[in-house]
Every structure is written in C-alpha cells, then in structure tokens.
Amino acid sequence: MNQQLTIGLIGFGVVGEGVYHVLQNTPSLGATIKKIAIRHPEKKRNAPSALFTTDLFEILNDEEINVVVELIDDAEIAFQIVQTALSTKKHVVSANKKMIALHLPELIELQRTNKVSFLYEAAVCGSIPIIRNLEEYFDNDLLNAISGIVNGSTNFILTKMDEQKLSFEEALKLAQEKGFAESNPALDVEGKDAVNKLCILLKHTFGINTLPYEILHKGITQITSNDANYATEKGYKIKLLANAIRISEDEVVSYVLPRFLKDDHPLARVHNEYNGVLLSSSLADEQFLYGKGAGRYPTSSAVLSDLSALRYGYAYEYKKSGTGKTYTLNTDFLLKVYVGFPEDEAVNLSDFETIHERYISNNEQYIIGTITLEKLIHATWTQSPDVSIIELNEETDLRKADFLYEEKIEQLEEALT
C-alpha cells in the first residue's frame, strides 16, 4: 500500500531544515509537512511562518497528521513526544539515539500495541543504512560481530591529531569551528554518543536489550600527543570503535574503546566526519559499510529513507528477539590494552592478568597488558582523566568468532542434503 504521509515535524535545526527542503523538492515521496514545532519563535526560519508553532499538541492532537518526525536534542522530552505520538496511533521517525537507547523496549511495545511504525535509521551512522541491513539481511545465527566508527565528531578529531599533529584541544576547536562538534562536546568525546548507538545496534544485531551505563565506554578526551606519537611510530591509526562480538553460542562481548589499527585495516581508512561499519558473518565473511555519519544532508537522507519506507507500511520486526535464543553480555573477557598515564598516577598493576611491556620517559609512562573487561569497568584508576586506555589487538576482532564458522557450514550442508 502506498499511503500519503502528512507530517508533523518537531525540531527545525540543521537536520529538520534539511528534511523540509528535500521534501519541498521531492513531491514523488508523497509526503507533506503540515506543521513544524519549534522552541524559539523569534529565530528567523527559512520556511513560511504559518507552518510554525510552539505548541507541541498542535501536532500531537491533529488527527490529519499521521507521521511525527522527532528531531530534537532533549532525550526526555523526545521520549514524551514519541510516547504520546505512538499512543495516538501516529507513525514516528526519530534521530534521537540517547532517547532510543534508554527507552527502546517501552517504545517497541507501544509500536506493537498501537499497530504503527517507529523507525530510526538516522539515529545510527547518519547516511549508512545499517539498521535496515541488520533487520533484513542478517540472521543472527550467521552474524558473528559488528565493529565500527559510529561518531563522526571523534573521528574528525582523531584524524586531525594524526594528520596535522594537533593536540586534542586544538583538534576539538577545529571540529567545533567546522560544525562537527557541539560547543559542549562531552556527549561525543566521552564515548556516550557511541555507546547509545551501540545499544541500538545490539538490539538489531543480537536481540539484546541493554542500557548505556551497563556497557564499558571510554572516549578520546584522555588521548595525548604521546599516545598519538606512539601510534605513528608503530604504524597505527587511533579510532574510537563500538564493538559487539559473539564469543560463544549464547554470549556476546560489547564495549566502546579507542583502538590502535594497522594502516591497512578498513576502519583505519575512515577519515574526518565519515563513519564505517564492519560486519562479520559465517558465510559472507566481512562486509564493510561506509558513509558520512553527520551533517544536514547525510542525516536527512536517513530520515527520508524511513519516510519512504512508511509509505509502504514498513516496520521493524525485531526478528533477532523472536528466535527463542537469548544472548548475555560477558564481561569476564580479556582485552589487550595500552595504558598511558603520568608517572605519579596510581594505576594498580595487579589488576592486569599480564604486563607485556612498560616504558617510562619524562614523567610519562605507558604499559601494555592484558586485563578483563570487568576490571576496566570497575577499577577506580580507569576513571581518571589522566589515564588513556587504547585497545591493542593486532588481529581483526571480528575473527574471534571464527570458531562458529565450521559448525554453521555443517548445519547448512545438512539442511541442503
């Protein structure tokens, strides 16, 4: 069924304005914006004034509006909006990854109860259609891992630290000047944005419900010029990666950490504000998705993709949650890490299973050791703003699931004979 969409747009920032202009120029989508809710009516807007309102209920109570597109920053207000819209049987398209990560099970139940669609491709990786791919093309019995650069702001900063030898502070300032980082960039640079997106990916990859605070996530604020110099000396790039790796038939390891990658690794070649995602499956081996992860038009393209899908009644089926198979998150898992810190910083070396290397110079030092994910989550020294933690695994992490490959091939051969 090809249905006409009458849209209530909530938020008219960079992405909201982009969506408005594209819809104005694409009548073939069969979607029109009836009303736009804004917070600051005094601001000059590049659209007819009659479209705007400061009253959310002009949209939420309008029976002609059958789709709400939510594009605001505040996660709790966004949740109230989406909750109300779904309850009044309106479809919803959202880009609010924090809101979705915190409330996804509740929103899925509302969607099912009211027989409407809740789509959010724009919440993860901008223009890369990762959620739709996970939903439609990868059965979780064959999918072994996902690993990716999911935040364009941090990737831009790390790129400039590498290519132009800028300090973290200098690279952050440049990112803010170019509009890739907010004036308050904590959500991005502390790894919070990446872990919100990882929670969403876990649901669509393995059917796992979890909350951001339950997953180890470190950002890039602690990375120093010494760490960047080490990377250059060893032929590495530093990238902030979100990871979910199946390590047994019913266990998954998941975390967000900076990682040293060799120059020939696919994710090492993802520069500036771009995102990249590696998928590993038993049959297809590795597949790589790449595209712009932030900005007006990349994010708008994902919103428009969801609107186009709504015209044909599309909804996420959450197939990974309906197989009867349950995965748990394992934290008793060893990671090899580089830890950089000032000489007077109290890092408890007894937390490590093994210390492979230690170096001290000019009041700075680093160690390379093996430590459990559990210790990285709970050890007090890992919370210090002066301690950088960077994963150091020279083999592609996705290969850790290779033990599943032969077993799956045998099962498929049996099914075909």
Structure commentary:
The protein is of the alpha/beta class and 417 residues long. The protein folds into two domains: 5-119, NAD(P)-binding Rossmann-like Domain (Rossmann fold, 3-Layer(aba) Sandwich); 139-291 and 322-401, Dihydrodipicolinate Reductase, domain 2, CATH 3.30.360. 34% of the residues lie in helices and 25% in strands. It is built from 13 helices and 17 strands. Strands 7, 8, 9, 10, 11, 12 and 13 form a seven-stranded mixed beta sheet that branches. Helix 3 (75-87) runs parallel beside helix 4 (97-114), helix 4 packs parallel to helix 9 and helix 6 crosses helix 7. The longest helix has 18 residues, at 97-114. The protein is globular and about 65 Å long.
Through-space gap between termini: 39 Å
Tertiary shape: globular
Q: Low-confidence stretches at least 5 residues in length (pLDDT < 50)?
A: 396-405
Helical region count? 13
Shape-level CATH architecture of the largest domain: 2-Layer Sandwich
Q: Say what the CATH topology of the largest domain is.
A: Dihydrodipicolinate Reductase, domain 2
- Report the top-level CATH class of the largest domain: Alpha Beta
Strand content: 25-35%
CATH homologous superfamily of the largest domain? Dihydrodipicolinate Reductase, domain 2
Find the count of extended strands (DSSP E, 2+ residues): 17
Mean pLDDT: 90
Radius of gyration from the alpha-carbon trace, in angstroms: 22 Å
Look at the helices and sheets and give the structural class. Answer: alpha/beta
Main sheet: strands, sense, barrel? 7 strands, mixed
The H/E string reads EHEEHEHEHEHEHHHHEHEEEEHEEEEHEH
User: How helical, in percent, are the residues?
Assistant: 25-40%
* Number of structural units classed as domains: 2
